[in-house]
Amino acid sequence: MTFDTDIVIVGGGLNGPALALALGDAGFDVTVIDALPSGTRGEDAFDGRGYALALASQRLLKAIGVWDAVAPNATPLLEIKISDGKPGQGPGPFVLEFDHAEIDEGPMGYMVEDRFLSRAFLDAVTAHPKVTLIDKTSVTDQEIGPASVTVSLSDGRRITAGLLVGCDGRRSGTAERAGIGRSGHDYGQTALVCAIAHEKPHHGTAHQFFMPAGPLAILPLPGNQCSIVWTETHDEAARIQALDDEGYLEHLRPRFGDFLGNISLAGKRFTYPLNLTVANAFCSDRLALVGDAAHGMHPIAGQGLNAGLKDVGALAEVLTLAKRRGEDFGRVDVLERYQQWRRFDVTQMVLATEATNTLFSNDNPFLRVARDVGLGVVNAFPALRRGFIREAAGLTGDVPKLLQGRQI
Ligand SMILES: Cc1cc2nc3c(=O)[nH]c(=O)nc-3n(C[C@H](O)[C@H](O)[C@H](O)COP(=O)(O)OP(=O)(O)OC[C@H]3O[C@@H](n4cnc5c(N)ncnc54)[C@H](O)[C@@H]3O)c2cc1C
After folding, report:
1. Dihedrals phi, psi of 407, to nearest 5 degrees
2. Beta-carbon neighbour count of residue 270 at 10 Å?
3. Which residues contact residue 40 at a Cβ distance below 8 angstroms, ignoring those fewer than 6 apart?
4. N or C end of the chain: which has fewer CB within 10 A?
5. Domain 7-85+103-184+276-404 has what CATH class?
6. Helix (H) or strand (E) run with residue 61 in it
7. Phi-psi bin for 286: left (phi > 0), alpha (psi -120 to 50), beta?
8. What does the buried/exposed string (b/e) look like for 306-333 if buried means 16 or more CB atoms within 10 Å of the residue's CB?
9. CB-facing half-sphere around the CA of 316: CA atoms within 13 A
10. CA 193, CA 268: separation in Å to the nearest integer?
11. pLDDT tens digits for 391-401?
């Protein structure tokens, strides 16, 4: 059977281009389709939006040839400090500290700004001889046949392929059109995201303060700047976002504390309503879901994109090995190998995220004692600490080859 392209990927956000590059390197002809104009990605203005990329994700970026373009602007994550806190009172007495020096592999990960990562992906996809990018075009329909899939585009074109991959985000139309339902709930929380400039150096340390309404993450960027992910209830977040910059900072300062000296806003302010949404299946015949299309989770552990890039590594490995064996890579029994590989890991991550958010995002005095003791216990045992560091770096479990920095 001949197709227009081997694999159609719906979604040119972050996981879509990563998968396209990995599959293109393996010899597949890949077409990526995105509704947005590609020129709007990686605009040069600094806006402070960034991702805490685990070491394993950095290795995947290196393996697919994107890291060198990102590296000059990436900030190594050398230390992570986690503590309980209350606005105005600063961090509690029990602080959990993870230092990269406790493992041999180097930094636990890197903070990468969205503008540099998006630009690097766009440039690499555009230059790749096996990848075609169609932007400003939506996928409006899909027909799954016994030996091929056909997608209809908003400009009237139809494209046939052996496999359709949905990298189309939390409200995946690819999943919906295939009749794959979703499970999840609204957290009742919104993340306020912005960039902050501060007086003192951050020394590559990321902080997570657990406040009664939700966590406040302070993530290091180049120079004396950091990216903030600050969680509040929907109503409170809307109220804070509506304030002018000084009013906004008046709310942030008592939560942030003064350990980095005086703080000021360094860019635009964004809000993201938070919900959990997990697809009830990660594949069906001639179709697979990757990244947020498969699992959108709470940013409390900064693992959303890292989990997506693990999907990318796993699916690329399954499809490449199937192709080498001469198997029909779009068949559901091949795709189920991917689902089996990722499902358990994602379920574990979702459960851990749910438990952490429930345990830490409230002011119950009994839970407060329990979590402070928990932080203290983990901090007291180097072996436990090392386990958490390796987990945060993405080095545990059945790690796909690309995330080990190896070719498939
Ligand atoms: C506040 C916040 C902080 C976060 N921080 C971190 C962090 O520190 N570390 C981390 O690992 N993760 C983090 N995440 C998670 C991370 O942002 C997401 O996991 C990641 O962006 C998902 O990428 P994606 O490519 O799967 O989906 P998306 O980025 O949502 O891309 C989907 C793409 O599909 C396109 N599309 C949709 N439908 C169609 C269609 N019908 N036709 C054509 N195109 C279509 C859209 O235009 C879009 O470009 C954070 C998330 C939030 C909300």
Report:
1. -80, 155
2. 15
3. none
4. N
5. alpha beta
6. helix 55-63
7. left
8. bbbbbbbbbbbbbbbebbeeeeebbbee
9. 33
10. 9
11. 888 888 899 99
User: Measuring CA to CA, how many Å separate 129 from each of 111, 241, 305, 402?
Assistant: 29, 44, 26, 20
Distance CA(115)–CA(113), nearest Å, equals: 6
253 Cα to the center of ligand 1, angstroms: 29
pLDDT of residue 27: 98
200 with 258: CB under 8 angstroms?
Answer: no
* Residue 347: both structure tokens together: 């379920």
Cβ of residue 52 lying under 6 Å from some atom of ligand 1: yes
Distance 101 CA to ligand 1 centre (A): 31
Nearest CA to ligand 1 atom 31: 13
**Residue 187 CB less than 6 A away from ligand 1:** no
- Order of strands, edge to edge, in the sheet holding 287-289? 131-134, 30-33, 7-10, 163-166, 287-289, 283-284
Answer yes or no: is the C-beta of 12 below 6 A from any ligand 1 atom.
yes
Q: What is the CA radius of gyration of the chain?
A: 21
Q: Hey, which of 8, 9, 14, 403 would you mutate to test ligand 1's pocket, going by the most ligand atoms within 8 Å of its Cβ? A: 14
Q: What is the mean pLDDT of each run of 10 residues along the chain (408 residues)?
A: 92 97 98 89 70 96 97 94 74 72 83 94 97 97 96 98 98 98 95 96 93 89 95 96 97 92 93 96 98 93 92 98 97 98 92 80 69 69 76 87 96
Measure 353 CA to ligand 1 centroid, in angstroms: 18
Alpha carbon of residue 53 to chain centroid: 8
Give the contacts of 140 (CB within 8 A, at least 6 positions apart).
152, 153, 154
